[in-house]
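User
New here, explain this?
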Amino acid sequence: MLVSVIKLISGEEIVAEVTLDEVNQVTLLNPLQLMLQQKQDGNGGLGTMILPWAVSVEGKIVISKDKTVYIAAPKQELVDQYNQIFGKVMAPRTPKILIKG
């Protein structure tokens, strides 16, 4: 399963571990909803808020592919946040300690 962003025809944007199958179904695991919110920095910019989605459901969720507008790869920053929320092990992208010998 790959972490992907799914836009539903209802307008909801979801980030989840996604599997596509041959019968036009999309399986979601650990879905989270993405929502825009105004940043509190005073510049009027927008940020992304991550909220639980389908909180009354346990396990995988199967939806019909025709209920999706798109399925796309998220920005690496979002993947890192998602993995942090669900306790996935992440390898650092760049070394943080340099040792000169």
Observations:
- The chain has one helix and six strands.
- The mean pLDDT is 87.
- The longest helix spans residues 76-85.
- The radius of gyration is 16 Å.
